[in-house]
Amino acid sequence: MDKHPISELMETVMEKIRQMVDVSTVIGNPITTPDGITLIPVSRVSFGFASGGSDFTGKHQQATQPNPFGGGGGAGVKIAPVAFVVIKDGSVRVMTIEPPVSNTVDRVIDSAPDIIDKISGLVKKGKESKAEKEAE
User: Residue 9 and residue 73: Cα distance in Å, rounded?
Assistant: First the structure.
């Protein structure tokens, strides 16, 4: 049995979407600045897809001919940048470019890299001061 024209229509539209949106669209290619900072863009991608069609009979259609098909399809893609991952001197930080977070859980998640960096710094300072005391 031959493929129905609606399946070919849907395949064509979905292939075009695949060509427009890939992993590099969501997590962009790293950008390295001359001073050694690496920036990785992060985007939000959303899309919608619709298609439809109908077989119909014509006025002068012979009984042995297949019914004519009419159909259409379309898609929309929205790509919005949301953040950059910044890597500098072994430290990783997420810099959002959206409006500030609105609830406590989002704030905690957003500030987690800074908290980890501060705790690491305190632990390192504690070890250094302990080593200095032992050296005396």
Answer: 7
H helices present in 21-97, as ranges? 23-26
Q: How many CB atoms sit inside 10 A of residue 80's CB?
A: 10
Q: In this predicted model, what pLDDT tens digit does every residue of 58-95 receive, in sequence order?
A: 777 777 777 778 888 777 888 888 899 999 988 898 88
The pTM of the full predicted model, rounded to 2 decimals, is 0.49
User: What is the token pair recorded at 120?
Assistant: 């690491």
* Angle made by CA atoms 51, 53, 54, in degrees to the nearest 5: 165
Longest dimension (CA), the chain: 105
First to last CA, the chain: 89
Q: Are strands 69-88 and 91-96 parallel, antiparallel or unpaired?
A: antiparallel
CA 55, CA 68: separation in Å to the nearest integer?
Answer: 6
- Per DSSP, 34 falls in state T
> Which residues have CB under 8 Å from 131's CB, separation 6+?
none
- Residue 26 identity (one-letter amino acid): V
Q: Rg of the chain's alpha carbons, rounded to an integer?
A: 28
β-strand partners of 43: 81
